[in-house]
Fold this protein.
Amino acid sequence: MTDPLVEMRGVRKQFVTRHVLALDEETRKRRFYKRNLVDAAMDVSFAIQPGEIFGLLGPNGAGKTTTVKMISGLVKPDAGQVFVAGMDVERKRKQILRQVGVVLEGTRTSLWPLTPLENLMYYGNLKNVRGAVLHDRAHDLLDFIGLQDKKNIQVRRLSRGQKQKLAICIALIADPRVLLLDEPTTGLDVQSSRAIKDRIIEMTHGQGRAVLVTTHDMHVAQELCDRVGIINKGRLVACKPMSELLELFSEHVFVFKLDAPAGTGPLRGLPGVLSAEEEAAGGENSLVVSLATDEAERSAGFYAVMRALEGMGRRVLAVQQRQQNLESVFLRITGQPLDADGDAGPEDPEQE
Ligand SMILES: Nc1ncnc2c1ncn2[C@@H]1O[C@H](COP(=O)(O)OP(=O)(O)OP(=O)(O)O)[C@@H](O)[C@H]1O
Ligand SMILES: [Mg+2]
């Protein structure tokens, strides 16, 4: 196996957050704080190989951006080590800056009064890329990402998707081996999102870069990533090749809508049936049945359920296939619902 381009070993990061409590009625001052410790990384370890797109998938506040910042040297871990191209990020910060291109979520990397081409020239110079190399690379990148016709328009006149494409070009101007993309397609339309995903795949698989993509969208991960780490409250709860993660999705869940309630007992032992639950919502009687991954078993299970329901004298009004989503995969892996709140519970207020 080749050496990884990115590696995190037992990385921990905690943030202290201070919550401002209600205004003090008498003094009209905000003097009360509630101190919370937030775990943004709890013993996180993973590696990314050259030519690999690694996805970091997790809910809001899980620690995705913090991880990106630690790899690019913007945030210092409390414990553990981060390596880029075999170099310790903490000790070789300067060398690493040239190896890593980063696009952070929602940040204004580009200079808006300048044009895309001027931005690339500016950032290239800043990163010691000069002359003909810079000129050619800037044009190649604009071509590659599909911004050539916008190269001489002020950035502030570009659309959000076009600005995002430019941010990716800027991250690539020093030809880094490692590319860190924090939520690269959030807020983009289907077309721009598609274009960016295609470019990311091309420059990773075709050019041997190592790419980290963060997202809270399972579909983005599914289309883009070779391997996925699922992160929740700073913990990497699963780290699997995409194909294995997809197996968790390939379990088929069907919702049978019935004319009257039906017990689940007779369904449970049926071949091909993994589980059956009753669900009463909006005055409807539904049975939620998960069937086997194997196609033949699943098909047998499906018809066995239909027959069993008929045997119970129930009429099936409709059958729907329930989409598996991040939430359900999360539930299966962690045994807990996906929790968007990474903060600890309330603690004693302290006076400042
Ligand atoms: N500078 C900071 N000071 C205090 N707390 C922070 C700081 N940066 C991040 N946090 C906390 O660390 C946790 C992880 O934040 P992070 O930005 O890494 O999450 P994320 O996975 O990127 O979420 P999102 O999907 O919303 O972008 C959050 O609970 C956040 O409040
Ligand atoms: Mg984030």
